[in-house]
Amino acid sequence: MTQILSLSEATSAIAARVHARRETYRTIVVNKFPPLEPLTVPMILGQYSRTEITGKRGERQRFIRRQDAICVDGLLETPTALSRDFLTVRKLRERRLPSDRVAINGGAQRIPFAPSFALPGEFDDGFYVDIRAAYFSIMTLMGWDVRYNPGKYIGPGAPLDFPFPDHKIARNSLVSIARPHTITKMLPPGGAAHIVSTNGHNPYLNFQLSALISDLLHVIASHALELGAIYANTDGYVAPDDATRRRIEQMIADFGLSARVKHRGSGRVLSVGAYEIGDFSTLNHTRGMAISARSNVVDIDCARWLQKNLEYWSARLGGNE
Q: How many angstroms separate the CA atoms of 159 and 145, rounded?
């Protein structure tokens, strides 16, 4: 059985790993990553760090960005590294895969991980509704090491006592590091980029967690569209009127999750990632851009089964705040 560490014990163990990394790498906190040229040693380029991968212990350099970092025991560290540290000190790994693992495995070939839909149109009083901390809320309810086989069984894992619940990047990293991904290595002398898969040596892969989150997001998006939404993207939906907004919020609550309104007002949808509501406009929204409808929302065969099970576990485990 997995040992449940107290929050202070987990934080202390994470801090010890942060200090140990300082002995391996000369960590430099920067506001902006330095230029790669001239590149003299091989380097891994991450979204929140750049790390030299050759050289003597303690002399290899690792750059982290100050604006993304979290302070632990007086040291700044990247949110992704801290998420990996948490899973390590808690000894969390994917539960034993079901015999018909094809139902959850396959990475990007299974279904699109996140749903997206856009029906271009205008509205007088619309709402942008999203699921509050969607990934983290699902993990808080069912655990990072959830047992999931679509249409057959779903069971909660260990309680999620994550020490950084208010840091969006850190909590979402618990999902991103559990999915197949690649890293970029830059090699001297010319700085040639090599894209390398981490799947062969990623101890944090968790196809059951990824499948549960993906299935649930597609089911909720499908319901939201049936209830009148004209836009869906991952965990956010545009309701063109108040009645639709209320129906979507109630539907989300039926899954044991909570919704919030981020934006309200007149506006319009142009395409996925391009909309305006009230005073808010997406960064890539322009008056002259092309209008395009789009949908990759997948009908999940076990949608009703999934909803009933989430309702059951939400009631039994107390749901989310």
A: 9
State the first-to-last Cα distance of the chain, in angstroms, to the nearest integer: 27
**Are 193 and 184 a contacting pair, CB within 8 Å?**
yes
pLDDT tens for 25-56 read 999 999 999 988 888 899 999 999 999 998 89
Query: How many CB atoms sit inside 10 A of residue 94's CB?
Result: 19
Question: Would you state the structure tokens that stand for residue 164, as one six-digit string?
Answer: 């950084």
Contact criterion met (CB below 8 Å) for 19 and 163: no
Map tokens 């934080």 to a residue: 11
What's the whole-model pTM score? 0.89
* CATH code of the region 101-167+206-317: 3.90.1600
- Encode 112-141: b = buried (16+ Cβ within 10 Å), e = exposed: ebbbbbbbbbebeebbbbbbebbbbbbbbb
Which secondary-structure segment (H or E) carries 216? helix 207-226
Sheet containing strand 231-233, edge to edge, reads 280-281, 274-277, 259-271, 121-131, 236-239, 231-233, 116-118, 294-295
Question: So where are the chain's domains?
Answer: 7-89, 101-167+206-317
Other residues' Cβ atoms within 10 Å of the Cβ of residue 4: 11
